[in-house]
């Protein structure tokens, strides 16, 4: 778990176990039944009671990339064989993780020590995570880890939700100013987990660039988008409008078209990459990367590479401020919702 301040609680806990021992690879202490809590796992208090859960409070809304589970070591071998995941941003309203509109049942463990990992594509934005055991071997006992999208190395992160607004959650000072937007349901069902853009000239976010967002060479851009219109910018460095020069930009160019161009530092155009993968009136997890060491520009959709082009080794035009959902002088404006914009100064590979 990449959050040292996380708090672990449970619906119930057996005397032999503790939530402190619920972390992946925890080891048992010397058995002492007068003290308890020596076993290496969280264990439900009742052997057969349904509805038990293990909960992690990450202490802030975070992008969650996956989970890992193990069984109990020391004493009797026990493990959870299947479970569901639920998420919440406030601890009151919970959403069950789904795939293709159905609540997903995750495969658990088959022994006490093997790590079983499940990645969440797209990542889930939430503060609280609950493991809800459905079936188990002998007892509902579990050790686990929550995998976080590593916002610590993001050069910019704009959650676009009720908690952060258009502020940069990295604390680097590149807080956005939103105009003509409103809060709307987010990708995980959060009532105010996204910004809605009207698809007009006066609906956008301006993000300053104090130098932190000048990635110069390699980069990764990520966003959750819910398009309802035909075309518009997702993430657009503004460029030099006086000279008519573009800069690095990541767009929706048709109802299904996802497009990126990594423009050179002096404004010279490079080959673009495009793929008709977007789903209208639905959440899409999209990304654009450029790797200066290989010269490869790529676009991603729901965790998969859907387009690549070789553009050579360039220094890119990222020295400008950023505008989201609109570009000055363009009549194409993004209509729909966006959440969790992220920018990194390296090219992700997965």
Summarize the structure in words.
- There is one protein chain.
- This protein is mainly beta.
- The protein has two domains: 7-149, Jelly Rolls, CATH 2.60.120; 152-344, Jelly Rolls, CATH 2.60.120.
- Helices cover 0% and strands 43% of the residues.
- The chain contains no helices and 25 strands.
- The strands form four sheets. Strands 1, 2, 3, 4, 5, 8, 9 and 10 form an eight-stranded antiparallel beta sheet that branches. Strands 11, 13, 14, 16, 21, 22, 23 and 25 form an eight-stranded antiparallel beta sheet that branches. It has a seven-stranded antiparallel beta sheet with strand order 12-15-24-17-18-19-20, with no helix packed on it.
- A hairpin with a 4-residue loop joins strand 18 and strand 19 (257-261).
- The protein is elongated and about 75 Å long.
- It starts with 6 loop residues before the first strand and ends in a 6-residue tail after the last strand.
- The relative contact order is 0.15.
